[in-house]
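Last lecture ended with a question: if I hand you only a sequence, what can you say about the shape of the protein? Today we answer it with a concrete record. The protein is Transposase. Below, first the input exactly as provided, then the predicted structure, then a couple of comments.
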Amino acid sequence: MGFFTQECAELTVIELYWLLRLVHRLHRNSLMQCKQGMQLVDHCGTFTHSGSDTFG
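The predicted structure:
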């Protein structure tokens, strides 16, 4: 995980929490909420690959 920067690592913790909230809300909200959440982590490149698998 050498591509992680210190700032990105700190953001990832917060963004992971938001992703969990977004996934929980998917049962009631539209996929747009999910896409907005993905954009938050996309700038770090954290979920560019695993994100697709996570949301199936």
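Comments.
1. The mean pLDDT is 64.
2. The two ends are 23 Å apart (CA to CA).
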